[in-house]
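Just scan my protein:

——
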Amino acid sequence: MPLALLALAVGAFGIGTTEFVIMGLLPEIAADYGVSIPTAGLLVTGYALGVVLGAPLLTVLGTKVGRKRMLMLLMGLFVVGNVLSAAAPSFGTMLAGRVVASLAHGAFFGIGSVVAAELVAPDKKAGAIATMFTGLTVANIVGVPLGTYIGQAVGWRTTFVIVAALGLVGMAGIAKLVPEQARPEGAHLRRELTAFRNPQVLLAMAMTVLGFGGVFAAITYIAPMMTHVAGYSEGAVTWLLVLFGIGMFLGNLLGGRFADRRLMPLLYTTLGGLALVLALFTLTAHNKVLAAITVVLVGALGFATVPPLQKRVLDQAHGAPTLASAVNIGAFNLGNALAAWLGGMVITAGLGYTAPNWVGALLAAAALVLALWSAALERRTTEAPTAVTAPSPAAVPAHH
């Protein structure tokens, strides 16, 4: 494994910690600023929307500089956002700090995915992308519980100072270990935008929004669901999030291993399994043991879709992968924001704390339908070669 992947994983660990730790610290932050928990929840929504906006915006700016330098600049922006969050005198400033940190998120994973894929042989690309994303999944096993614990024991501002320091470590690692990669010839906006004319790229992104949205519909409301329905104590929620993180870690490894060989069958299995498990979660949530097992499965099936979906976008965005890759990271977060909002709506409508699981199941099922449609379209274009644009020599052959 190239050491450069480790540097990318450290950056991913810092970003993953700052994204998810907020869920564990919302009560403390809300109390500190004297705002309600739903208002403090804007720190989650604001971050997700910042990723959606920042991904294409900063990636387009990034086509002007080399990828290595851009990754370092993004880590710098991430550090500034977390320092601002740690020092924020008011809730508005805290929200601004979250948005600044989130702007770096999509472009870092988007450009990082392309860099990771170029560090290894063609048949190991999805595995390399998965290695970088391991940082994000380990953040949920180690970073988030630890950050929540430190935040509750010493104060939430300390957590953000530590995360900013992690960003500096990631930045130093990228400076030292990531090789300079030649800027792709003609890497300008018009060329990058051509990728979005390919319906397969748009279908893969729609699968990302719906599939990952299914996961977040359930997980955003895990605390009230586990305490009110399953009967867990509030302190146990941290450990349930660790289980979710372990599921994510295992799913990401499996996704990375099989996406290079059997990409579409893997997507059918994971999206179908996710829809089924989320539907069953409405029943298993009433039993402590079954609820815990279901949380692991939701994390595993949800994150097993990440390497294949990211690779699917890279495969289909022939010769213009950077912007498409970053926008797909934005799509994950658009799914998060949309699903959290839909889950909140069904709870507000009085359907109970398990109702978001049904929302999640429907979203995952819709993603499966899109995956089948995408494969059918691909078969049709393969049978009619005249309708297919010749891929550039640099393009990766799509796996069927």
Q: What stands out?
A: Residues 386-400 have pLDDT under 50 and may be disordered. Residues 12 and 20 are 12 Å apart (CA to CA).
